[in-house]
């Protein structure tokens, strides 16, 4: 998927995750408008130029839920809420009752109460998995009525690694579009957490439609050398936010060229692995620079040319030109995409 955003009249921002699945060009949403001449049997309001009648088909918005699992997932949800992400419902799942008290999510859910008695899992993914199994019914009830479920977690620990695949399984089996957005631990967190993360990601991959994995080590290419350790983890939380918001905004915020939930579902259903990139520029060549930043971003980790599809979003001020949009499109569509979704 690729998202391109003009954040103000002078700045172009592009974020780009690529998804290995067929994409489809999305045209402008159709609104039927027609002009009617005066008619003796017309009950509509008349004026000397005739009557203009427009019909709009009402659209029911998609139900989107963001579920943070474990400490890392709960932190990411707090970050999303703090950033003002809207149009979604937030859930925080954890075995640790004390940690849930720190969650800003409107829907906290403690799992494995009998197993852990309100404590954490001590970094043991097996306990996290068993806790989720114990609370399957409660999880299913929390997800009920969803169209799209984001599952976000930090891989490598106990609850996130163990419970996230179970939450994903419940969601996917219920027929909801299920997207995982997770981080892979920093190298300095140790070999044990890395191995646990790999195993958890493998399980999660089998139970989601689309999976975005963000290796924390790549954040070292973004962060300043003087970045405090705590800020590095906050940066990881913020990247998880970008992954979720980059997709949800496409669905929930109307654009000149619109992409709705049905389009996103067609693209992301059973699509496998996705990658995320963000580009921002306010220079004279902002279109090209932002597009290049997004498609070559450290978080992507490979060439966008290998992607079979791209979804990109452009956001910005009223001064964006047709030529800029065209240049961004040319830069982004270098992949082997069969089809492309574009939102402006």
UniProtKB/TrEMBL annotation:
<dbReference type="GO" id="GO:0003924">
    <property type="term" value="F:GTPase activity"/>
</dbReference>
<dbReference type="GO" id="GO:0005874">
    <property type="term" value="C:microtubule"/>
</dbReference>
<keyword id="KW-0547">Nucleotide-binding</keyword>
<dbReference type="Pfam" id="PF12327">
    <property type="entry name" value="FtsZ_C"/>
</dbReference>
<comment type="similarity">
    <text>Belongs to the FtsZ family.</text>
</comment>
<dbReference type="InterPro" id="IPR020805">
    <property type="entry name" value="Cell_div_FtsZ_CS"/>
</dbReference>
<keyword id="KW-0342">GTP-binding</keyword>
<protein>
    <submittedName>
        <fullName>Uncharacterized protein</fullName>
    </submittedName>
</protein>
<dbReference type="InterPro" id="IPR000158">
    <property type="entry name" value="Cell_div_FtsZ"/>
</dbReference>
<dbReference type="GO" id="GO:0051301">
    <property type="term" value="P:cell division"/>
</dbReference>
<feature type="domain" description="Tubulin/FtsZ GTPase">
    <location>
        <begin position="63"/>
        <end position="255"/>
    </location>
</feature>
<dbReference type="Pfam" id="PF00091">
    <property type="entry name" value="Tubulin"/>
</dbReference>
<dbReference type="GO" id="GO:0007017">
    <property type="term" value="P:microtubule-based process"/>
</dbReference>
<dbReference type="GO" id="GO:0010020">
    <property type="term" value="P:chloroplast fission"/>
</dbReference>
<dbReference type="InterPro" id="IPR024757">
    <property type="entry name" value="FtsZ_C"/>
</dbReference>
<dbReference type="InterPro" id="IPR008280">
    <property type="entry name" value="Tub_FtsZ_C"/>
</dbReference>
<dbReference type="InterPro" id="IPR036525">
    <property type="entry name" value="Tubulin/FtsZ_GTPase_sf"/>
</dbReference>
<dbReference type="GO" id="GO:0009507">
    <property type="term" value="C:chloroplast"/>
</dbReference>
<dbReference type="InterPro" id="IPR018316">
    <property type="entry name" value="Tubulin/FtsZ_2-layer-sand-dom"/>
</dbReference>
<dbReference type="InterPro" id="IPR045061">
    <property type="entry name" value="FtsZ/CetZ"/>
</dbReference>
<dbReference type="InterPro" id="IPR003008">
    <property type="entry name" value="Tubulin_FtsZ_GTPase"/>
</dbReference>
<dbReference type="GO" id="GO:0005525">
    <property type="term" value="F:GTP binding"/>
</dbReference>
<feature type="domain" description="Tubulin/FtsZ 2-layer sandwich">
    <location>
        <begin position="257"/>
        <end position="343"/>
    </location>
</feature>
<dbReference type="InterPro" id="IPR017975">
    <property type="entry name" value="Tubulin_CS"/>
</dbReference>
<dbReference type="GO" id="GO:0032153">
    <property type="term" value="C:cell division site"/>
</dbReference>
């Amino acid at each position: 998927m690729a998202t391109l955003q003009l954040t103000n009249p002078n700045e172009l921002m592009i974020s780009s995750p690529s998804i290995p699945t067929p994409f489809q060009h999305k045209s402008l949403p159709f609104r039927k408008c027609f002009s009617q001449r005066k008619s003796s049997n017309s009950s509509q309001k008349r004026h000397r130029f005739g009557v203009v009648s427009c019909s709009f088909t009402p659209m029911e918005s998609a139900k989107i839920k963001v579920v943070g699992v474990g400490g890392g997932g709960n932190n990411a949800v707090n970050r999303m809420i703090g950033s003002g992400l809207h149009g979604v419902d937030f859930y925080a799942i954890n075995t640790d009752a004390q940690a849930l008290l720190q969650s800003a999510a409107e829907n906290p859910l403690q799992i494995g109460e009998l197993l852990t008695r309100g404590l954490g899992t001590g970094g043991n993914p097996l306990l996290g998995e068993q806790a989720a199994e114990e609370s399957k019914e409660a999880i299913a009830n929390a997800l009920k009525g969803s169209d799209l479920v984001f599952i976000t977690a930090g891989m490598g620990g106990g609850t996130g690694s163990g419970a996230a695949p179970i939450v994903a399984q419940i969601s996917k089996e219920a027929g909801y579009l299920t997207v995982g957005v997770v981080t892979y631990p920093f190298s300095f967190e140790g070999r044990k957490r890395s191995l646990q993360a790999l195993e958890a990601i493998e399980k999660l991959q089998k139970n989601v439609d689309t999976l975005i994995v963000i290796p924390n080590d790549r954040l070292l290419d973004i962060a300043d050398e003087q970045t405090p350790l705590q800020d590095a983890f906050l940066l990881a939380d913020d990247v998880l936010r970008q992954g979720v918001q980059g997709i949800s905004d496409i669905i929930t915020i109307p654009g000149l060229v619109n992409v709705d939930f049905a389009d996103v579902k067609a693209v992301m259903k059973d699509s496998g692995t996705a990658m995320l990139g963000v580009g921002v520029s306010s220079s004279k060549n902002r279109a090209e620079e932002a597009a290049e930043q997004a498609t070559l971003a450290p978080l992507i980790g490979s060439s966008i040319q290998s992607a079979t599809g791209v979804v990109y979003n452009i956001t910005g001020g009223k001064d964006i030109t047709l030529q800029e949009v065209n240049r961004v499109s040319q830069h982004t569509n270098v992949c082997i995409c069969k089809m492309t979704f574009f939102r402006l």
